[in-house]
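Lab notebook, bench 4. Still working through the backlog of constructs that have no structural model yet. Next entry is a single chain of 77 residues. Request: give me the structure tokens for it.
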Amino acid sequence: MGEMDKIALQVIDECCAKTQTYLDTALHYLDVIEVSDKTRELSLTRTKIDEAKLWIGKYKDSIMDELSDKQDETGGE
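Model written out:
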């Protein structure tokens, strides 16, 4: 991952959190649709959303680690 300043990392972290929220919302609406129409395509959509949540979570964790390192470097400013 490239060198980023603390503010950029905080913005990315917030964007990741919002993305996770949107993915959770998408899963909620998918549940609503599946009540009346459970198809292979909807199951595949659920799998892809779950996979996206996994990868964005891993990326967010790496951002949090880098942000923690930056705070350690600056004495927790």
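Notes after review: The chain is about 85% helix and 0% strand. The helical segments are 6-36, 40-73. Flag for follow-up if needed.
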